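Researcher: We're teaching a course module on how sequence relates to structure. For the next exercise, students receive a sequence and then see the predicted structure as tokens, so they can try to spot secondary structure elements on their own. Here is the exercise chain.
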Amino acid sequence: MSSTPLPTARTSAEEDPGRRAAAPLLPALPCAVLCTLLFGLLLTLVVLRWGPLMSLDASVAGTLHRTAVAEPGWTRLNRALSDWVWDPWTMRAALLVAVCLLARRGERRLALWVAATALLGTGLQQAVKAVVGRDRPVWPDPVAFAHYTAFPSGHALSALVAGALVLWLLRRTGARPLWRWTARTVVVLSVAGVGFTRVYLGVHWLSDVVGGWLLGGALVAGSAAVHGALASRPSLPGTARRAG
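Model: And here is the predicted structure for the students to work with:
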């Protein structure tokens, strides 16, 4: 007579897929709060034209602009990177590819979530620009030109939003470590690189770039936190019976 098998504890590998996907996203909420607070502080200092911050902006911008004027070859390279490789439309095109791949895999809700996050980022950026109305640097010998107001940097925000969303998707879908490390390297170089080019070309202050990073980080972290919370919610009893 066979003995009845003893009950075993449920392992982490057998957990609900929604909870397993949401677990790594728990740190997203503190990150969103921290970025929001830092952005709010920086926004306040920019609006009040806090002296030490204005001096730092002017010092960094002046030093880099003198280099840009003296090194036309290096300046042309930075313009190509800023206007083509790291342009906001390039970042949006990369996200569009990711959205299309998600939709092709049948993950239409996630694709819509990513698209909505990116669109919200563009809307927030334009709204803050309109409210703050900060002037861009003005030079007697400019090496580049840009439209609209300065704070926050749209290039910096777009690069961070696109990069962070791609990294979030790779982590959420369980991509191989090599892919994740490669993507992480590309994203870090792109986010830092586009920030440098905008200040080097004399079209943004340093605080504009930092503001774009913080606002983009707050947006993506907040989006990931909300998505994780929704994904981890238990199903309604009626829904569970229908699924069964």
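Model: If you want an answer key for the exercise: Residues 4-25, 236-244 have pLDDT under 50 and may be disordered. DSSP finds ten helices and no strands in the chain.
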